[in-house]
Amino acid sequence: MGFQIRQMGFCFWVCFSLISYILSCVSSPADATAEGDVTVEGTVFIDGKAPIGTIDNDFICATLDWWPPEKCDYGTCSWGLAGLLNLDLSNNIFLNAVKAFSPLKIRLGGSLQDKVIYETDDNQKPCTSFVKNASEMFGFTQGCLPMKRWDELSAFFEKAGAKVIFGLNALIGRSIRRYGSAIGAWNYTNAESFIRYTFEKNYSIHGWELGNELCGSGVGTRVSANQYAADTAALQSIVQKIYGDVDLKPLVIAPGGFYDPKWFKEFIDKTTKSLDVVTHHIYNLGPGIDAHLVEKILNPSVLDNAAGTFRGLLNIIKSSTTSATAWVGESGGAYNSGRNLVTNAFVFSFWYLDQLGMASKYDTKTYCRQSLVGGNYGLLNTTNFVPNPDYYSALLWHRLMGRNVLSTSFDGTKKIRSYTHCAKQSAKLAFNSTMTLPYNHRSRTLQHKHEFHRTMIIQLPQGTAAEIRREEYHLTAKDGNLHSQTMLLNGNILSVDSSGIIPPLEPLHVISPKPISVAPLSIVFTHLPDVIVPACNVQP
Questions:
Q1: Which residues are tagged catalytic?
Q2: d(CA 52, CA 435)
Q3: Which of 390, 401, 414, 494 shows its CA 20 to 30 Å from the CA of 521?
Q4: pTM of this prediction?
């Protein structure tokens, strides 16, 4: 498969899927024909007049969960010692993987967070771990976070330079009715004590998030939007009281659940003075047991379905007087821990990078991937912390894709997907595109671009070949196997060394007027440092 880009200066990434993800340019139709492939014409348009959205500089986020080793799905127990109470904080690969982002947002939470109590002075109950019990919600009893363990976790996050979002138990004080509704106000005594302990220890917290998947229909149980708004105001009052004169107080974040238009509108309209961030969760591929996950990942119609959620939430925020911004607070694609050799393999970068691009397009400020480690969808291997392919996709995005998002459209097959941002380290452009066709595709572009698509062409600036520069990052699966957990960058295996050091991500330096070439089953990020557009001079 092929992709052409005529360059003018910016950063972008491209993916080629049909089982490939890549950013590149097709050299010529003759090359494609020699391989027995078909070349399809198309056009990419990039509007460089003004950004259509902005993201946080630390847009990439990942989660850590509470699940104990006994957490199993479909007969497979994939969490091991990845839960917050068991995680090996002394592992050098783990530390270096987090430090490589400088910083990485890490959201601590998940299904069991609403069953966690904190071992502070107000808590008179024994601090015991989760115990498996099929009669309990989510299959486990209440658990407890010892302050000694919180001290250890906080020391690790400080050493790694992480920005922590802590998910609080929002069910304390409520009674759960027979048909799932949680009634009553939030009892925040234990949470307030924990927040005060954290403040007095001088542990850095980027945000306090209230509850997990209790909005709308809920998962396990649900809380009304009116009550949740009142509880969010209580959390905001606690943060204001405890952090007092601190200039940069932690963000107040909620509700951390699945998007329900009616519920979210009521909640946002009633929290205009208390809420900083609206979080929602995405698992749009269905259960991890689904044997057709790969087909869904490579199906543009399935990928496009997520746009309705992003668009709907953005419209609610725009129509409200709120100053809150939208985040994806948790997203693992396939729920119930994902699927081994799919959601932790090369093929999943097609879904993941498309999600990052689509979320950015709809002004989502941060995107938290489930998980950093744990289950079958971790960025890192659950046992040894070795990075899975999506880790490198996330790291490249973090380093290349800047805050300003540009409007990009492709006149051609839906299986070519692309997104464009201004480059992170300059006022130039960054581009990203995905290809899901099994053949070469050529497209022409009259503007700058960034998008996921098969083949694209961006007109390069006029001048001599020596004046046309670009940096290319071609990502492929080992042996072309979409289920591989080994990723190659420009033909070289990405792996940590014996000291646990994350490998450098070095580009190909190209000085040529020729188009960029995108190979089948590959992903490409391209930085075009000579492209200048007005949108990239706009301060976010």
A1: 213, 330
A2: 23
A3: 401
A4: 0.92
